[in-house]
Amino acid sequence: GEDVEQSLFLSVREGDSSVINCTYTDSSSTYLYWYKQEPGAGLQLLTYIFSNMDMKQDQRLTVLLNKKDKHLSLRIADTQTGDSAIYFCAEVGGSQGNLIFGKGTKLSVKP
Amino acid sequence: GAVVSQHPSRVICKSGTSVKIECRSLDFQATTMFWYRQFPKQSLMLMATSNEGSKATYEQGVEKDKFLINHASLTLSTLTVTSAHPEDSSFYICSAEALQGVYGYTFGSGTRLTVV
Q: Which candidate from B32, B43, B102 shows the least CB-CB separation from A88?
């Protein structure tokens, strides 16, 4: 079945860039998503990329997609303490058209 | 942009009682709504998919008689946890899918259910 993998933890210093990586299995996914979850809160859509794109930039966020390797990354430039959260990578892959999520990467930003 | 309202955000209930969680799409019509459950430090797992006017489709291992889903209109879906037990304590999040576009995967703010 479909599977999405991502590393569980990432720690960076304030002002540095953060790169969160994700691999997925369903090559037919049309959209791939990055969501942010702050403690006790729901998921906030950060950005998404269409499968025919290699890169998408949105202010401090850059998404890179390597379809051949089924690898997706999220780069956060000039990481701030407010960026500390759990970031989920997701693909559309379920039998119901639902999202399949990775386990989430906990980003810790140190001052 | 698309907004999904979910409430309550937190609920504490006694074991054996039922709890209803509402999920509303505020500015778009949602043909499909998804209910996810998130265990501590784990990812979201799909529980069920509800389509307006039809029965929900439950994922394997999810008890349909325990987690009642109603999707009576294009803007409202409810999840009722019946005869709740402490092991039902979890974070429940709904997601609504719009008729068109990438706004389909808009999430509610989640409900923290604690059964005591």
A: B43
**Nearest by CB to A99, which of B105, B108, B109?**
B105
Q: In whole angstroms, what is the distance from residue A37 CA to residue A32 CA?
A: 17
Residues A27, A70 contacting (CB under 8 angstroms): yes
For B45, counting Cβ atoms within 10 Å of its Cβ (0-12 exposed, 13-18 middle, 19+ buried), the class is middle
Tokens describing residue A1:
């079945």
CA distance B55 to B42: 28
Closest residue on chain B to A96 (Cα): B49
A4: β partners: A24
- d(CA B97, CA B105) in angstroms, rounded, equals 5
pLDDT tens digit sequence for B44-97: 888 999 888 888 999 999 999 999 999 888 899 999 999 999 999 999 999 987
Could you report the per-residue pLDDT of B10-27, keeping only the tens digit for each? 999 999 999 999 999 888
Q: Inspect the interface and report whether the beta carbons of B105 and A102 lie closer than 8 Å.
A: no
List Cβ neighbours of A108 (8 Å cut-off, separation of 6 or more).
A9, A10, A11, A12, A84
